[in-house]
Amino acid sequence: MLRQAATRRGAPVELIPVECLSVCKRPCTIGFSGPGKWTYIYGDFAPDEASAEVILDAAKLYAATPDGLIPWRQRPSALKKGVVARIPPLASHPTPDLPEAAE
């Protein structure tokens, strides 16, 4: 539904479907990410046309920011209520080798 709404709008967004974001209790979940920007994960969207429109409006706001931080007052209420995670931008410098995660 989101892809059809984006196509209909001619919205220049890249939609990347993923199998799982490990947010089982908060479907439908989406994420916004961009180089040098904070990544946001939002959940609790209904799988309908109205949610698709809200997501596309929010994607436009996100894309217009230099850092991914949409001012609180400009955020649609679905985003204010649906924040799952806020992840800082990746560092622009190399990171040291880290040990493998425990299994």
Q: What does this entry look like structurally?
A:
- The chain is α+β, with helices and mostly antiparallel strands.
- The protein has one domain.
- It has a 3-stranded antiparallel beta sheet.
- β1 and β2 form a beta hairpin.
- The longest helix is centred in the middle third of the chain and has 15 residues.
- The model has no long low-confidence stretch (mean pLDDT 87).
Give, in spatial order, the strands making up the sheet with the most strands: 1-2-3
Shape: globular
Number of helices: 3
Number of strands: 3
Question: Helix/strand-derived class?
Answer: alpha+beta
State the share of residues found in helices, binned by percent.
25-40%
Mean pLDDT: 87
Give unreliable regions as ranges. Answer: none
Tell me the Rg in angstroms: 15 Å
How much of the sequence lies in strands comes to 5-15%
Termini separation (Å)? 37 Å
| Total number of distinct structural domains | 1
Mind summarizing the main beta sheet?
3 strands, antiparallel
Spell the H/E element sequence.
HEEHHE
Jot down its keywords.
103 residues; alpha+beta; three-stranded antiparallel sheet; 3 helices; 3 strands; globular
Short description:
The chain has one domain.
SSE topology:
Layout: H1 2-9, E1 30-32, E2 39-42, H2 49-63, H3 77-82, E3 83-87
Antiparallel strand pairs: 1-2, 2-3
